[in-house]
Structures
1.
Amino acid sequence: MKKFFKSFFINQRFFIAYFGVVLLFVLSYFRPALFPIAQLVLVLLLLITLLDGFFLYSKKTPIKAKRILPDKFSNGDENEIYITLKNHHKFSLHLKIIDELPPQFQIRDFDIKLKLNSGETKQVSYSLRPVTRGEYKFGALNVFTNTPIGLLSRRIQFDENKSVPTYPSFLQFKKYDFLAFSKTHQPFGLKKIRKLGDTMEFEQIKEYVIGDNVRNINWKATAKKASLMINQFQDEKSQPIYCVIDKGRVMKMPFSGLSLLDYSINAALVLSNIVLRKHDKAGIFTFSRKLEDKVKAARRNMQMQLILNTLYNIETDFSESDFSRLFLDIKHTLKQRSLLLLFTNFETRDALERQLKYLRALNKSHLLVVIFFENTELTAFIKKPAKTTQEIFDKVIAEKFIHEKKLIVNELKKHGIISILTAPEDLTVNAINKYLEIKSRGIF
């Protein structure tokens, strides 16, 4: 009986119908001739209500429903969830689906309405965009069934207490993996560059053509062939590439729901995949007070899975990042010259000046690329017209902060440090472009 009352619901149509009957009884007080009609309508309505309830509960399992969840969610991306439904009744049903979504989404008004004919099977879908990594727990899938009469509803619950882990954006690395190696047109400004390098990794001997580097002429092969022959080299492979992610408090700043830390984690995952596909060694570090979450650069079969699992567990500790400790830890950890892509953020030149000596020291032993972020909200703010003196003052301050970012780029360039100033949403593609550019120019 308790189970019955938990599944039994009264619809709005029920109250409207019975309110009409009550109104008819009120009118019969002034017009006695309406009283028998009101009684008849009440009896008919009671019979219809009982009939509606009988149809709803005539089958133990009138409908089958199943929620189809992915094995894992991709952080920051739209993830599709599917619901399949089948009507076992001999009449059509009007359904209202309420899925108990994980509390992280804070969605309180989710529902899907549809009509399901007798014996019909349908699949509906909706998408969710998680913005934090971790475990997402779903509650019950509630399906409210209504007959064509529509006075009562029966609730049936399916798929209770399911959970899905949310990993860094693996959907992005599949997308950019395709774009980086596709021979078709590259959108988003992604550059696919193959350059015949001037490094010591030999590729082949070919005939000299105008424009080739004369320093690479192979005189022995020239003598044998009686025509100019040239050594052709390719970019070096198996070079160690590290994504170094700052997880201090400056990386907790959110843009479009995602923190700068999560943008960096997503970009590091995509970039590591591209690095491995380019036959280099991919590794990651995180730091705040010390170097943590170490994945040594390698080209093992399980390297991407190891990187993915490591990035899944990274959280900010809200502390001030210690760049001096970063320099010392990298000095003792990395014995081979490596390409370091440092994901961090500087809001002012003073913040950079405090860390500049450590960045310069890192750049002497390794090739350092400092990646930091534009404040896109300030950029959007200064584009709005100012109407008051206070708004003019605020815009001047905002423009000062934006200009500071450009000065930071110039300061890093002055000391021979490569930098990327990027909007958070463009981070992944700009990081890939810079890596491909460095490889193509033979800088590293």
2.
Amino acid sequence: MIELGCVFDLPGKRRQIEQLEHETADPELWQDPPRAQQLLRRLSQLRELVTEWETLSQQARDLLEFRVLASEDLELASEVEREAAELAERVRQLELRLLLNGQYDGHDAILAVHAGTGGVDAQDWAEMLLRMYLRWAQRAGFAAEVVDLLEGEEAGIKSATVEVRGPYAYGYLKGEAGTHRLVRLSPFDAAHRRHTSFALVEVLPLVEEDDDVEIRDEDIRIDTFRASGHGGQHVNKTESAVRITHLPTGIVVTCQNERSQIQNRETAMKILKARLLELKIRQRQEEQARLKGKPVVTGWGNRIRSYVLHPYTMVTDHRTEVSTPNIQAVLEGEIDPFIEAYLHQQAAESEETSNASGN
């Protein structure tokens, strides 16, 4: 606990809280609502972290006292060991959250899955990934809602968009962006041959208001159409689905899962803002990488993970080299080891870059 206290920097966090409290008390701040909301969000996150740390510290002190009393009581000693293990896990989770210090890490997220090369196998694979992330969100206590879904003709899905809401949803999920590869004996091949399928995962920060994103009315074209898929008579007979095209960038977003055209339009606008913000973030990263002489691979060229079901079973992350043979558990949403390894890797690389700059 003492070691983590140095990493946590409790006095520094309290100073940040005082500074933010001072800033949010300024009446002029509310003339800039997006900045005010950003500061309030950061203030709330810091207060939550400090409160949790203080609670963990008190529990650790209590356990040390009980440990002395438990030296001659086997039943009490067993209870102390159990609580110590639970406390250690909570400390580990807090330490992990400290790595989520990016500008948008604390925000909700938009996660999109797209079937790639591989025909119906790829569409089935995209649906498997969608299910994996929905299961993960449920395990992690996040609210996940599918806001757009395009089904495949024979099986699976062509694409899906999910809104994931909860503290640090984007921070945890951002490392999942990239191409996911599946190798298996195809259930859609009469000869039952081995097939390789690909699906692309996109992760975007969901920001209601942000100075970085401005959408002018003249820059968008809005089209309506009849929703497809299993939506019942209502969606098939009315033009409730919405497609928004951002003319300057060519970005197209659709939403057809809501029954109301107004609701679909609002959701599509949120997704468009997220895509435009992600575009700006990527452009900044590419510029920074260019200055450092490092390439940045995005989209389909960024293969991050392989899932092999035949001739052996193994899931391997190609960035961190973390792997597990328990592919069924992974497909049921147990992807935390991959998420945590990626966050630690990014933190280590950031520290190396910082040290190099300091030298």
3.
Amino acid sequence: MDAAQTLFGVLRESAQPEIVEAIERLIKEAPDHKLCRVNVLAFAAGEGFDDEQTIAAFLHACRLGLFDLSWNVLCPGCGGVLDAGASLKSVRSDEYTCALCAAGYEPTLDEMVEVTFTVNPRTRRIAAHNPDQLPPIEYFRQIYWGSGIDLPEGDLESRVKEFLIEDLELPAGEKAILSLHLPEAFVIVFEPVTHAAQFLDVKGEATTERQTLTLVFDRKHRHHEALDLRPGPLRISVENHTEVRTLPSVCIANDALHDMMKQRRPFLTAKRLLSNQTFRDIYQTDALDVDQRLKITSLTFLFTDLRGSTELYERVGDLAAFDLVRTHFGVLNGIVAAEAGAVVKTIGDAVMATFPTPDRAIAAALRMREAMRQLNSERGSEDLLLKIGIHEGPCIAVNLNERQDYFGQTVNIASRVQHLATSREIFTTGAVLDDPLASSFLAGQGVKPLAHDATLRGVTENISIYAIP
């Protein structure tokens, strides 16, 4: 930990000291499973820290090598991890299939890809660094389930016993027999390492004759089809054709299992992290490959531009105008970051920023307008007249011009909305105001948006436009 102590000192230079102290305690004192795939939002909530400051601290800790990032593709049904990688570049498949839910999903960055933090083995060695050696229950807790599943801390084993009939650790290349008595129920034979499942619909008159079943785990066959069996004795022959240990488990699909999987908590999504300024600053050129196209079902875009910037340069001169515009960029960047957003790029005197939710974009817009008023008041001039446009909708995350960017009609509409605005105006679409958090925020501010009759150039669909006074 001597080298880690030095790194903690460096970390304090870029993160809140109290958060760094909490991270240091976590690494020193927490049980192993608390340091595998850390849910940073749960950590922040438990310690009473601000989400964005905590995310920034963990990102800087990753930069220093204290933690490693993991991008995990989740099943939206059961919350299990279908795939995991050290980079978002690992998300390559057009569809991910969950054997436990017997369903396929097209990956989106909203709720299907989580980002977690695992302590680096040079910082502290934990059991999950060798997942093949984890006890079965801990494998499920630390490797299979995503960080959004709120598993019980102390009584996980007793909870599992409420639905687990039998389980087995099967070494690589080995065969084994599971002998058990089937109850009348819907039973699942699930193997979390290869993500294989066999459904057994156990019903009808009980039998004393032994039924048999053979299952091969080889990362290819998923055994989706349900088999009809009768209550009574069952002999399952299992074969492990993989290079690692497998963990076949026989479970009853009862209320205890479903209730455990229903216990959810917020987690850091890929969408939110891509809209985090600290992440963009650290990983700007390393988020996506140039040929990747990843869908986001909902992202909020904010565009700003300075009205009359050309006249400003002519009036005060290039050097003074440049300093003033740079000051304005610094103010806007700070506001965007404080509202959980990120500046995607600047175009001339304009800013393109993203926010995970519409309410944060509106909050940022109001703060931007007030900040420009204050700057103008301090200067005794009206040089900084900001025009702002906001829109929310689906888009595609791409790598463009060596930076993580976004593409799609939502981006185009947000830009067009900004072009409608004149000086000091904030224009937004009905899609933004339809968001409950956004409408509640505006109501709390005593602000009532005004309908604006306008047509967006190059956009055929009918879009409601509102001005925020």
4.
Amino acid sequence: MITSIEFLSEGVDLPDFDKQRIARWISAVADRYGKIVGSLNYIFCNDDKILEVNKQFLNHDYYTDIITFDYSRGKLVSGDMFISLDTVATNAESVGQPYDRELMRVVIHGVLHLCGINDKGPGEREIMEGNENMALDMFETIK
């Protein structure tokens, strides 16, 4: 199995980060859940694009930081993840976190969804946050 993690942009500049380090981190997080990374596409965009995707595919009329399309099968995690850099910046400011940390939280949030972690039901948001924090701690150990 060939791991393919692509970082794409639509209407925004691609974030300036170490793509190979992030790919190693994503694979390590997936492995922690007994999963293998297949094809992941991160599409970084602005609020206009994420709203368009949210309306078109989910019939939601609001902004969000990430929309994850899950194409996983069995242990193989695959999907497309649209991330609004505008909303990431707004959220970072509102929760008092550095932008780069909030961006990494959102990047791994999509992978956690693909690994089976949900955040919509009772108590699930806290479970997701705990898993995000664990993954962010892991990121600090990845070189």
